[in-house]
Amino acid sequence: MSLPERLGRLERVEAIGAGGFATVWLYRDTELQSDVAVKALADNWARRLDVRERFLEEARILRRADSDHIVRVYDVGEVDATPYFVMTYADLGTLAGLTAPGRPLPSGRVLDLVTQAGAGLGVLHELGIVHRDVKPQNLLLRSGGSGGERVLVADLGVAKAMLHASGLTQVVGTPAYMAPEQVSGTGIDRRADVHALGAVAYQLLTGQQARTATMHELLTATLPPAPSTLADLAPAVDEALLRALEPDPADRWPDVASFVGALREALAGPDPDTGSATLITSRTLLGEPVAPAPHRPSLTPLFWLLLVVVLGAAFAASYAATNALS
Q1: pTM score above 0.85
Q2: DSSP H helical segments within 127-284, as ranges?
């Protein structure tokens, strides 16, 4: 459906995205003079009470997830029996706009983008939520952040999860990024999102998808080519990415923090002086600043103070001896 031109103080601008389940519109807040996005459930799904509830549950989860790297929900409502929610507008599009065959991104930028996405996913995982459909189209970009762009995790796909839970045949996820266990829909946990984020990182670093978008490749569960054979990357990057893409969840990184940490070290390389990884981005996984090295006070002032004390004592002793001889 087409949402009305006005929703309270919000004024409709244009449709900015559409899918089988929902349409997203750009609205202007006339009071605050700022842009927001409004996501409305598609008419055919709005008639199903179970899907409506899942749609609103997505809004509740996004509202509860307190992170700078997850879209924020500001309000929910209903128009002509169609539910909608008001959320963050991503003015820079999505990571899909950065992907092009044969055109890898600089490794420093990829690390920054993947770190931010991992931060958002980590918060969801702490809430017990598995995204299930992490892909460039669901990783939004908004102005801001240290690099001028902020990644926002969006579209939890709860309506698609509802379809699978109802016993319908549609698989939840996108074959080019989804983990093999999502085909059966059993044993899905946070490691499915680790797999998907690894596939996103693989594509950004090499300019090629880790897998083609076919279900057959998921069922045969083979690893993609080593990234270092496709782009100018260190062999250590192969280990970090291919472990994230392991067909068996037990062989993957256990969580996004482990994966992002390994990728950071692989891309940065060891510091020849310390043997530890030299960071090429100012972010940490959870957005906390890296602690500065402890300040070591200079020894110079202490040296001069001791010298003055020693000389003063020597002078006093000499003066006393002179007076005694007199």
Answers
A1: no
A2: 158-165, 181-184, 190-206, 215-220, 235-244, 256-268
SS3 content of the chain, % helix, strand, coil (to 5): 40, 15, 40
273 is catalytic: no
Dist CA 96 CA 51 (whole Å): 27
The 10s digit of each residue's pLDDT in 74-84 is 999 999 999 99
Least confident of 37-46, 76-85, 219-228, 287-296: 287-296
CATH fold for the domain made of 93-268: Transferase(Phosphotransferase); domain 1 (1.10.510)
Across the range 32-59, mean pLDDT stands at 93
**Beta-bridge partner residues of 94:** 140
Contact (Cβ atoms closer than 8 angstroms) between residue 71 and residue 140: yes
- 186-236 pLDDT, tens per residue? 889 999 999 999 999 999 999 999 988 677 777 777 889 999 999 999 999
Distance, CA of 263 to CA of 237 (rounded, Å): 6
pLDDT in tens, 120-133: 999 999 999 999 99
Question: How is the chain split into domains, by residue range?
Answer: 6-88, 93-268
Q: What confidence category does residue 171 fall into, taking pLDDT thresholds of 50, 70 and 90? A: low
Annotated binding residues, written as ranges, equal 39
pLDDT score, position 185 = 80
Catalytic residue among 35, 50, 133, 255: 133
**Which segments are annotated as binding site for ATP?**
39
What CATH superfamily classification does 6-88 receive? Phosphorylase Kinase; domain 1 (3.30.200.20)
Cα separation, 39 vs 61, in Å, equals 15
Amino acid type, 217? E
Report how far residue 49's alpha carbon sits from residue 81's, in angstroms, rounded to the nearest whole number.
Answer: 11
177 membership: H or E segment, kind and range: none
Q: Name residue 69's amino acid.
A: H
* β partners of residue 153: 70, 139
**8 Å CB contact between 291 and 283:** no
Question: How far apart, in whole angstroms, are the C-alpha atoms of residue 316 and residue 247?
Answer: 82
